[in-house]
Automatic annotation (TrEMBL):
Needed cofactors: Zn(2+)
Biological process terms in GO annotation: proteolysis
Family: Belongs to the peptidase M1 family.
EC number(s) given by UniProt: 3.4.11.2
Listed name of the protein: Aminopeptidase N
The keyword Transferase appears for this protein: no
GO molecular function, one term: zinc ion binding
Length: 479
């Protein structure tokens, strides 16, 4: 995620032994009583947002089928959630803000209620769910998403001509029920029906477009699992361009709500997407997904976002290539490798910002080392940049400029410390070992020390965990 101003399962193996109890010389064995089904927790365990995600379930896919009325900003439809129970469940939750009309579990009517200030949809199936069993949950709803807020966020971005569902760290609960945390990736299949003549853009590949009495239904599907906040859709009037670069299909779209000049410059920027991917692959290896693209909205989000396979952007003109670099670098760092908890956010934003520095040094600009030393030399020790603990900034500072700036400084300082060849081996090892999963700061530090053959604990301590300016030493990648 970035603003235009800032280049921005579980096998919990409780092998519980049944103890043989000898009573007065008898050889009988007492069996432990079966545990009663539990209510899955309302939260997956992230301290920044305790209600994010849910306990007791692992989602494999979402099949979303929505209608959106642009004029009234009303969203209605249903989502089918396929999940596995990870413990014996009397009930479980999904994260969802809208008014719910009906819930079924495996085709049988389930009771439901709203808890957690309206963020938690608590579902009680007709029969408890046994650990390890798979289930299909269908939720039907009809509401105005703009009415709702959560964690201080009012995320529905729409006018009467266009809508785009884009935000971080939360977006899904405004338009589909989900297990809304990076630890639970799933396949996302999206159908959205809009008035005839309007377009819908979403993640992945366009699978079909059907016009009927209700309007036109656009069907998009991404082949690879994704974190819920990375799923998006936009509806309105868009100009679409597509092609194929070195075997990789790309599709970009630009809002027709923009002026003619802004449409033209935005399309030029969006069409840089394949070129940027080619450059990133030289450093990071193969692009991790089967399609790529981008969308420029006519609305004013105030930031760009790394929606999986198709980032979304505000209108910033045709020359802001670094913004495209940032969001496409996130396809590796943030999308393919998601954070383990939100405290690990520098693994997304610091890495994407560093790849902007790398783009500059390989495209006629100053070197990443020069950028590091400019930051270091020009930011006073008393500045707020040095007061943020980058490895754990807290919910209020999760997107603080220090997470981006000091995060990218950490990587270039690491590059100076271990040498260029070892540094790129570290990044490629991280990508290979965490592919398709989640990564934590501790895991990255351990891997970097292993690959480099150096004890880097002191290095990471001063850059990521100490709220003060690192000393200007060779050990800190400076000096």
């Amino acid at each position: 995620m970035t603003t235009p101003a800032i280049s921005r399962t579980l096998l919990v193996g409780a092998l519980s032994a049944t103890l043989a109890v000898g009573v007065a010389g008898a050889s009988a064995t007492a069996e432990a009583p079966a545990s009663a089904p539990v209510d899955g927790s309302s939260g997956i365990g992230d301290p920044y947002w305790p209600l994010d995600g849910n306990g007791g379930i692992d989602v494999s896919s979402y099949r979303i089928d929505n209608d959106y009325a642009l004029g009234s900003k009303r969203l209605s439809g249903s989502t089918t959630v396929r999940l596995t129970a990870t413990e014996d469940l009397a009930s479980f939750s999904l994260d969802f803000l809208l008014k719910v009309a009906k819930v079924t579990v495996d085709g049988q009517k389930a009771t439901f209620s709203k808890t957690g200030g309206g963020h938690e949809l608590r579902i009680t199936p007709a029969e408890p769910l046994a650990a390890g069993t798979k289930h299909s949950v269908e939720v039907t709803y009809d509401d105005h998403p703009a009415k709702y807020s959560y964690a201080g966020e009012s995320n529905w971005l729409a006018n009467r001509s266009e809508v785009v569902a884009m935000n971080e760290p939360h977006m899904a609960p405004w338009w589909f029920p989900s297990n809304d945390h990076p630890l639970d990736k799933a396949i996302v299949d999206v159908k959205v029906t809009v008035p005839k003549g309007r377009e819908v853009i979403s993640n992945g590949e366009l699978k079909g477009r059907t016009t009927g009495k209700r309007g036109t239904t656009w069907h998009w599907r991404a082949d690879e699992p994704m974190v819920p906040y990375l799923a998006f859709f936009a509806a309105g009037d868009f100009t679409i361009a597509k092609g194929k670069e070195r075997g990789l299909p790309w599709l970009v779209a630009v809002s027709q709500q923009l002026s003619d000049a802004d449409q033209a410059s935005s399309m030029r920027l969006m069409k840089k997407t394949p070129t940027v991917i080619n450059a990133l692959e030289k450093d990071l290896g193969d692009y991790p997904f089967s399609v790529v693209g981008g969308l420029t909205t006519g609305l004013d989000p105030g930031f760009a976002l790394e929606n999986q396979t198709r980032p979304t952007y505000p209108s910033v003109g045709g020359s802001y290539t670094s913004l495209v670099v940032h969001e496409l670098a996130h396809q590796w760092f943030g999308d393919d490798i998601a954070v383990h908890h939100w405290s690990d956010i520098w693994l997304n934003e610091g890495f994407a910002s560093f790849m902007e520095w790398r783009w500059s040094e390989t495209h006629g600009g100053r070197s990443a080392d020069a950028t590091l030393r400019s930051y270091y030399g020009n930011v006073a020790a008393s500045a707020d940049l040095w007061k943020v603990v980058v490895s754990d900034p807290g919910a209020a500072k999760v997107f603080d400029s220090a997470v981006y700036g000091r995060g990218s400084m950490t990587l270039q300082a690491l590059r100076n410390r271990v040498g260029d060849d070892v540094f790129w081996k570290i990044l490629r090892t991280w990508i290979a070992e965490q592919k398709g999963g989640n990564g934590s700061t501790d895991e990255f530090e351990s891997m970097a020390s292993r690959v480099s053959g150096q004890d880097l604990s002191g290095f990471f301590q001063v850059w990521l965990r100490t709220p003060s300016k690192p000393a200007n030493t060779v050990e800190n990648g400076l000096g």
